[in-house]
Amino acid sequence: MSEGGRLINVNLGDLSKPATVLIEKISDAVGEILRPGQIKRVAKAEAEAAEIRALSDIKITRIQQRGLARLIQEEGKKQANIERITALALPDLKADAKPENIENDWLAHFFEKCRIVSDTEMQSLWARLLAGEANKPGAFSRRTVEFVATLDKEDAQLFTNLCRFGWSIGDGTELFIYSNKADIYNHHGINFNVLTHLDDIGLITFNPTAPFGLFKLPKQLTVYYYGMPANLEFPNDSDNALKVGEVLLTKVGDELSPISGATGVKEFPSFVFSKWTEQGLKVSSSKDIPTSEHSSS
Question: How far apart are CA 202 and CA 82, in angstroms?
C-alpha cells in the first residue's frame, strides 16, 4: 500500500490537477470494491500471510493455507491491472477534464470489470475509456463498460480497422462503407463476414441491401477525417441527403469509436470525395490526411 493508505500507488506531486483528482476518485471507488469480505488490502494481506506462515501453532489446514495464498496472488494481479490501467489513462487527460464529476458507481463498476484484464492492448482500450469518461463525464454508459468487458481482443482489432473509415459529422461519427466488396475496404480487413460479425456482437448495424443515409442536412457542411476538414455544398437549399452506405454505428459503437485507436487511410478521402461528387455535391479540402493514431472526431 502506498503512503497515506492510498490504494493507487502513484506519486501525486508530479501530476496535473485532473490526474490528481482522478486518482483520488479511483482510490475511493476501488476502496469500496476491496472491502473486507473479499480480502484485506493487498500489502496488508501479504504481511498477514507471511505472519501466518511463520507461526508454527496456527490451526489451519494446508488446503486453507493454499487457498489464502491463491487469494492473495489473485488480488495482487488485480491490483496491478488497476494501477496499470490508471497510469495509462493519465496522459490522455485534457486540461479541462472533470474527473470529480464521474459517478462513483460508474467507477466502481468500471474497475470491477477491468481489474481482471492483463492483456496490454486491452488495458490500453480500458485506459482510453477511463480517460474519455474523465474528460467528459457521462460519455460512456455502464452498458458500454459491460460490453467492453465481454469484447475479445480480436473483435476490438476488427472494430478499430472499421473505424478507419469513420468521418466526424456534427457531434457524432459516421462510417462510409459504400460496398463491402470494394478493394479499399477489403485491403484493410473489412469485408462481408467481418461486418456481419460486428453486427452480430452489437457494434454496428449492417444492411448491404438497403443503404443508410443522412437527411435534412444544411446546404453547406464541414466534415472531418482525422483532423482534415472537408467542405460540402449541396445543390439544393432543402431536403439535402448524404448517402452513408451499408453500415451504421450502434449506440455502443458510437461511444467506442472515438477511443478505438484507429488511424486514417490515406487514399480514403479521395475515394469518398468521388462518391460525394457523384451525388452532386461540391467538395473542397485544403489539408493533407493525417495518419497518426487518434480519434476521427
Answer: 27
DSSP-assigned states of every residue in 209-238: SS-EEEEEE-SEEEEEETTEEEEEE-SSSS
Q: What single letter denotes the amino acid at residue 285?
A: S
Distance CA 262, CA 168 (A): 13
DSSP-assigned letter for residue 294? -
What whole-number distance in Å separates Cα of residue 194 and Cα of residue 11? Answer: 43
- Sequence-ordered alpha helix ranges (H) in the chain: 17-33, 42-54, 62-89, 104-114, 120-135, 142-150, 153-163, 183-186, 192-200, 251-256, 268-278
CA atoms within 13 A on the CB side of 212: 15
Task: With beta carbons less than 8 A apart as the criterion, state whether 246 and 177 touch.
Answer: yes
Give per-residue pLDDT as tens, 136-172. Answer: 999 999 999 999 999 999 999 999 999 999 999 988 8
Nearest CA to 245 out of 149, 148, 177 is that of 177
Q: Do the Cβ atoms of 210 and 222 come closer than 8 Å?
A: no
Nearest C-alpha neighbor of 115 from the set 147, 83, 82: 82
